[in-house]
Amino acid sequence: KGQVAIVTGASRGIGKEIAIKLAEQGMKLAVIGSSEDIHKSAVDIKGKGFADVLPIQADISNEAQVKEAVERTLQEYKQIDLLVNNAGVGFFKQVDKTTLEEWKKVFEVNVQGVFLGSKSVLPHMKERKSGTIITISSDVARYTIPNGSAYTATKYAVQGFSGSLAQEVREYGIRVGTINPGMVDTYFAESEQGLEEKKDWLKVEDIANAVIYMASAPKHMMIDEIVLHPFVQDYPI
Ligand code: NJP
Questions:
Q1: What pTM was computed for the model?
Q2: Is 151 annotated in the active site?
């Protein structure tokens, strides 16, 4: 209670639900999104009875904007206990049909964004000798899928990044983990939420509950990774 979380990519989908569940736990929030929708999302969350929601419109792949977002959060709340690196994009195409711009974009948001978000909160967390960084990765970080080379590559990268960071910051009492979902019913990859064909997929609440479980682990316990997928999804691991 009274702790502070930053959730990236909270304009909709998984990130918005994570923010709501963290607020239910009594946390104060800074929510980040690159579009104006982040302001509407913050209004929705406040409408559920949670006052401390600071919307910040920032592109997670832009170093200056991410730095400013973290500074604004510290000005407002004086501390940051949890960073949830959730913002992500994806597209699914054959390699020879993928443009360099598409390749760069998915790496900028999914990998550079996780790097910049983490880098920006670390000096503060190191100073306090406390903090948690959770990244929403993907179950495709554990196997491969056709037409998903760029997206899959970003999630393998995030997995490597988080593992290394976890070892690096353990001496500061900072915990780092990933949550690796299978298919989740969101707006991901230009989709819509609530489509009939996605009725058996994971719900945003499932991922948000995993974040709560990981973030509230007792001090003596470290949860490195949570993998979850729809019961109906093939499990080629
Ligand atoms: O996607 P979606 P999800 N800077 O499209 C924001 C992973 N995942 O909730 O920028 C800052 O509904 C965007 O806001 P805005 C996935 O890889 C998903 O499913 O304002 N924010 C929106 O809030 C990703 O890491 C599935 O438009 C940026 C959010 O990101 C995470 O789950 C499966 C941004 C995207 O919401 C959340 O994705 C899986 C930027 N540059 C992993 N660009 C799945 N859905 O099936 C975008 O394994 N955002």
A1: 0.98
A2: yes
Q: Enter the tokens of residue 18.
A: 């994570």
Report CA(190)–ligand 1 centroid distance (Å).
Answer: 10
Which residues, including other chains, have CB under 8 Å from residue 157's CB and lie 6 or more apart? 107, 110, 111
Tell me how many helices (H) and strands (E) the chain has. 7, 7
Give the pLDDT confidence of 84-137 residue by residue, as tens digits: 999 999 999 999 999 999 999 999 999 999 999 999 999 999 999 999 999 999
116 lines ligand 1 (CB under 6 A): no
Distance CA 144, CA 152 (A): 7
* Burial of 188 from C-beta contacts in 10 A (0-12 / 13-18 / 19+): middle
Neighbours of 130 (CB within 10 A): 17
Pocket test for ligand 1, best of 67, 116, 186 (most atoms within 8 A of CB): 186
* Start-to-end Cα distance in the chain: 38
Kindly report the CATH class assigned to 4-228. Answer: alpha beta
CA angle 202, 205, 206 (to 5 degrees): 50
- Closest by CA to 224, choosing from 175, 151, 168, 157, is 175
Q: Is the CB of 61 under 6 A from ligand 1?
A: yes
Domain residue limits, the chain: 4-228
Q: How far is CA 216 from the centre of its chain?
A: 16
